[in-house]
Write a structure and sequence with these properties.
This protein is α/β, with parallel strands linked by helices. The protein is built from nine helices and five strands. It has two domains: about 150 residues, 2-Layer Sandwich (Nucleotidyltransferase, domain 5); about 90 residues, no CATH class. A five-stranded mixed β-sheet has the order 3-2-1-4-5. α6 crosses α8 and α7 packs parallel to α8. The longest helix has 16 residues. The two termini are about 15 Å apart.
């Protein structure tokens, strides 16, 4: 598995606007050295262009977003909806078709569509289909990989949640639009098989990197260079330059790039116990969730 030459971690954002301050890219080289922040005020469309047209060879790309929606719990992404997509690739196209007129890979028109709005929780209401029938909690629906994350000590949130600090829905939906536009250019594991050579995209959850760097789930976010460098040292990485405060988008990207470099060679990461062919095809998986 020691075939990747570069490790690119992308902290993603579903926020409105032409540029997203929450997007950060960091690159780690297989030969060593500290991870490097790719300094730029990014838009989602610019990230798409990098991944499609300007990616270094043999790069493992980690995207901090959900590459699918829950399916196994209810047997469908949108149970009761006649045109509910059959698998992840069809889901990406479904989202992109409904949001195609929205610039910069936005997804607001998608979640506002009357056919799917009942499945989401936004800042105004919780849709009547936000949970499966008989659900025991109000946090919404979860993929199998998110259940695995929880078992490891993380606190994942539903991709059907669009409100508050815990909203991950719009980040994931905008990311799925990007993945649709990458079809044919860059494989996405495990929805696509892991190729023997070349670059590949995986879903990441930056809290998993922080846990393996010795931090707790409650303290996964780092907001100083000193905390970041302590975590990098725990992963066997050289430190980055800087002192004092730094935003957590930057630290998430830098730490996760180093973490990808440290663990990508481990065969167990590519063969988690809960990942079945059906889950791979419909929900995808978070790299590192075991």
């Amino acid at each position: 598995m020691r075939r990747f030459e570069n490790f690119l971690a992308i902290d993603w954002s579903g926020a409105k606007g032409k540029k997203q301050k929450g997007i950060a890219l960091a690159l780690a080289d297989a030969t060593g050295g500290p991870p490097v922040l790719v300094e730029h005020r990014w838009s989602r469309a610019e990230v798409l262009a990098v991944l499609r047209d300007d990616l270094p060879d043999n790069t493992l790309v980690g995207l901090d977003l959900g590459i699918g929606l829950p399916h196994a719990d209810c047997g469908a992404y949108f149970p009761g909806l006649p045109e509910t997509p059959a698998d992840a690739r069809a889901l990406w196209q479904f989202i992109d078709d409904l949001a195609q007129d929205e610039p910069n890979l936005g997804a607001n028109t998608f979640v506002g569509d009357s056919s799917v709005r009942p499945y989401f929780r936004d800042g105004i209401e919780t849709g009547v289909r936000f949970r499966c029938d008989g659900a025991e909690h109000g946090r919404g629906r979860f993929r199998v990989t998110e259940q695995a994350q929880a078992a490891m000590g993380c606190k994942p949130y539903s991709n059907f949640n669009l409100v508050g600090a815990a909203q991950v829905g719009k980040s994931s939906l905008t990311g799925m639009r990007m993945l649709h536009h990458l079809r044919g250019s860059l494989p996405v594991w495990p929805i696509d098989p892991l190729p023997e050579t070349g670059s590949v995209v995986v879903e990441i959850y930056t809290s998993l990197a922080a846990l393996e760097a010795g931090r707790s789930a409650a303290k996964a976010k780092m907001r100083s260079y000193e905390a970041l460098n302590d975590a990098l040292a725990a992963l066997g990485s050289l430190p980055v330059q800087g002192t004092g405060e730094v935003d957590d988008h930057t630290t998430d990207a830098l730490l996760t790039a180093a973490w990808l470099r440290a663990v990508a060679h481990d065969p167990e990461r590519w063969d988690p116990a809960g990942l079945t062919p059906a889950i791979a095809r419909t929900e995808g998986w978070t790299f590192g969730a075991l």
